[in-house]
Amino acid sequence: MTRRFSLEDLILTANLIDGRWLSAADGARFAVIDPGTGNTIAEVADSGPADAHAATDAAARALPAWRDTLPKERAAILDRWHDLIVAHEEVLGELISLEQGKPLAEGRGEVAYGASYVTWFADEGRRIYGDIIPAQQRGKRMSAVKEPIGIVAAITPWNFPLAMIARKIAPALAAGCTVVGKPAEDTPLTALALALLAQEAGVPAGVLNLITASRERGIAAVADWLEDSRVRKITFTGSTAVGKYLARESAATLKKLSLELGGNAPFLVFDDADIDAAVSGLLASKFRNGGQTCVCPNRVYVQAGVYDAFSRKLADKVGALRVGPATDPSSQIGPMINTRAVDKIARHVDDAVAKGARVLTGGTRLPECGAHYFAPTVLANATDDMQLCCEETFGPVVPLFRFDSEEDALRAANDTPFGLAAYFYSQDVRRTDRVSRALEAGIVGINEGAISSEAAPFGGVKESGYGREGSRYGLDDYLSIKYLCQGGLE
After folding, report:
1. Domains of the chain: which residue ranges?
2. Angle, nearest 10°, between helix axes 71-87 and 104-125?
3. Hey, is 315 helix, strand or coil?
4. How far apart are CA 444 and CA 484, in angstroms?
5. Residue 280 and which of 53, 122, 415, 446 are 20 to 30 A apart at CA?
6. What is the pTM of this model?
7. Where does residue 355 rank: exposed (0-12), middle (13-18), buried (19+ CB within 10 A)?
8. pLDDT tens digits, residue range 432-469?
9. Does residue 266 carry a pLDDT above 80?
């Protein structure tokens, strides 16, 4: 019978290393804060290099046996893990909302989304095929086989504390790799709960190791993973600046990296678009998690002929969004993750207004709700000299830019060093083909605002990183290809 855990059971405060729950080597701890209230939820281990090294040692010891398990045996464990995650959807959703601040309905949705990656890669792990290469010389047989790359270091962000780590751990385990991981300092509790369920599902000791560390200790806490040649891959979701740092510091051992980095997503609305559908698509893509996702539209370009109508309809919808605590079932927008996030949003809005933007709705902090709340905002008359044009706001702010021609829109959309996601709305099938090919992004939503799926490759181009997560392509980043050449057969 499946063991059921309560919310209190799932709030863990220690590191998971070699199957044991351990305090940091030096005993240090740091507080995890509820962004809605500012209260401390728990104090967790504040790890350092010694803890990271211990995790690497455990993963190295566990690797040979895990690598040699049959794919179907690994898949069976992942299937059990998936079932446990789904069985605990409600309490995991509550935990996500508690430490991250997204409304409870979104927290539940993230649990289902993260679980989908676990079951997807359980299935994909059963189908890791190689190739027989057609003979080029008599008496020789050539083939290519795929093998687990080795120890994987997974470093994840705070905005999707379950889904991001699930879609890194699941393919690694399915491929036969062992894992060392560090969740974001703002939201470590969900990751630790997920690890407990993995243990319960039968993941052997040392195969999955998680440590937590404060902002003050930061990436330096896991420097061991960058320098240790036993760690063969780093998978990271976060800022471009940190991604570049990881690439530089791990170069000495030539690790394989998957980097899902910053975005500055454009959202284009052409004058032949279904305006109501475009408004709905923008609401879905922009205000998920209060605008705190890497694929949220950051710049909305609307063609002149429909600009006024689109602006009015959007402002009406955004102004009606309900802001409140994550625990309130009626809330559609919860608190931002911390004070720094709210300060950045306010700075972007103030800069835009000072440079001529007009507030159609919102535009202010909401101190009556709490310190970390900001009103859903629509700004008209945005221009490319505003901070929000070139910096990712990461909050519930929609700046509206006016454009005249398709060429102007594409030029503006691509005028960024980033290239993660892009969206556009048009009912002209010829334009659909042209624009989808011209947009410089790893992901393009065409008349669609909800683009994420475990079956689709997720990742960017340019300074939004490289590598793909999800889909059949996502497993390849955890495998290496070995060429076998056998001679003397005649």
Report:
1. 7-261+464-483, 265-453
2. 170
3. helix
4. 38
5. 415
6. 0.96
7. middle
8. 999 999 999 999 999 999 999 999 999 999 999 999 99
9. yes
By DSSP bridging, strand 421-425 and strand 443-446 are: parallel
Question: Tokens 């649990």 label which residue?
Answer: 111
Query: Cβ distance 278 to 309 under 8 Å?
Result: no
- Residues whose CB falls within 8 Å of the CB of residue 330, separated by 6 or more in sequence, listed in order: 322, 324
CATH of region 265-453 = 3.40.309.10
| Distance separating alpha carbons of residues 193 and 467, to the nearest angstrom | 27
Q: Which of 260, 392, 406, 440 is catalytic?
A: 260
Q: How confident is the model at residue 3 (pLDDT cuts 50, 70, 90)?
A: confident
What's phi and psi for 217, nearest 5 deg?
-80, -35
Rounded to whole angstroms, the Cα distance separating 485 from 465 reads 34
Residues whose CB falls within 8 Å of the CB of residue 142, separated by 6 or more in sequence, listed in order? 132, 133, 134, 135, 136, 483, 484, 485, 486
Q: Please, what's the b/e burial string for 393-419 (b: 16 or more CB within 10 A of its CB; e: otherwise)?
A: bbbbbbbbbbbeebeebbebbeebebb
From the options 2.30.110.20, 3.40.50.1820, 3.40.190.10, 3.40.605.10, give the CATH code of 7-261+464-483: 3.40.605.10
Q: What are the strands, taking DSSP E only, across 109-255?
A: 131-133, 141-148, 151-155, 178-182, 208-210, 231-237
Q: Please, what is the average pLDDT of the chain? A: 97
Q: How far apart are alpha carbons 450 and 233 in whole angstroms?
A: 30
- Cβ(37)–Cβ(118) under 8 Å? no
Separation of alpha carbons 14 and 10, rounded Å: 12
Is 260 marked active-site?
yes
363-368 own/partner pairs: CB under 8 Å, 24+ apart: 366/323
**DSSP helix/strand/coil, 362:** coil
**Contact in structure between 49 and 224 (CB atoms under 8 Å):** yes
